[in-house]
Amino acid sequence: MAKTLTQLSTDVLDEIGEDSTDAALLALCAKWVQRVYDEIGNELDWRFNYILDTITTVDGTRTYDLNVNVRDVSSARIQTSGEVLGYRSKDSLFNGGYDMENKDTPYFYYFDEFNAATNTGKIGFFPIPGSVKVIDLNCQGRSVTLVGGTDIPVPTDFLTLIHEGTLALAHRHEREWEAFDKVYGMYIAHKQNLKKVYMHPNGQVNVMQPTDIPRSGGLNPVRLPPGRFRNF
User: Fold this and answer.
1) Element (H, E) at 84
2) 152, 41 Cβ separation under 8 angstroms
3) Is residue 76 packed enough to be buried (19+ CB in 10 Å), middle (13-18) or exposed (0-12)?
4) How far is the first Cα of the chain from the last one, in angstroms, to the nearest whole number?
5) Are 5 and 26 spatial neighbours (Cβ–Cβ below 8 Å)?
6) Rounded to whole angstroms, what are the CA distances from 112 to 76, 77, 124, 165?
7) Residues with Cβ < 8 Å from 188, sequence gap 6 or more?
8) What pTM was computed for the model?
9) How far apart are CA 204 and CA 148, in angstroms?
10) How far apart are CA 156 and CA 166, in angstroms?
């Protein structure tokens, strides 16, 4: 069941016995909700934070602003052809002796300077696009600013987690240290459990590939994928 920022703030104030109709208290609690939501959202690459951004290139333009909600780009491809762009840092391109003024169809992307005017990161392409290309970016998003009457954009099982974290901050504000320790401990334990569930989806099963089997020297060890074991 979805909940808005106002609803969750009201629930927490009701639970600690405060007047949830008090506008000042409600605004304070909303700040706690935002703080907990930001902490959770920025801690890990949660699946619910994945977003798709699209860049339309311009002939001769090297860099482009990313969506303000994009934290990182995990992959990129040209939409029409399906060609996958590799990632290279700007330093590695310069140090590798690439002609950074070359114009053609891009096959690398890199991160460029931060745009303080728009408060966004910038992405660059090499070679510089020589024509209009639509490039799809698979991205990790960042937490957004919550709005009072809008549903908090997380799966339902995260609403309880945000509630626990906000309740802990409320107890700390009231200097109820015993209650704070108890609820904050529940919050941390709950978050660890959700990490295990969300960071290892059932479809992410490591399967041995033909390349893992040595082709010569029958006693050579089998090579296991780097992520073969899950260490929590």
Assistant:
1) strand 84-87
2) no
3) buried
4) 29
5) no
6) 16, 18, 6, 36
7) none
8) 0.73
9) 36
10) 16
Residues sharing a CB contact under 8 Å with residue 90, sequence separation 6 or more, in sequence order: 110, 111, 112, 124
Q: Are 168 and 187 in contact (CB under 8 A)?
A: yes
pLDDT grade for 206, boundaries at 50, 70 and 90: low
Structure token pair of residue 201: 């989806």
Query: Among candidates 156, 60, 173, which has minimal Cα distance to 106?
Result: 60
Handedness of CA 29, 30, 32, 33 (dihedral sign): positive
Please choose, from the candidates 110, 102, 109, 93, the residue with its C-alpha nearest in 3D space to the C-alpha of residue 127: 102
Tell me the pLDDT tens digit for each residue of 24-49: 999 999 999 999 999 998 887 788 88
The 10 Å Cβ neighbour count of residue 60 is 10
Torsion angles phi and psi, residue 59, rounded to 5? -55, 120
Annotate 14-72 with DSSP letters as a single string.
HHTT--TT-HHHHHHHHHHHHHHHHHHHHHS--GGGEEEEEEE--TT--EEEPPTTEEE
Q: What is the DSSP letter of 211?
A: G
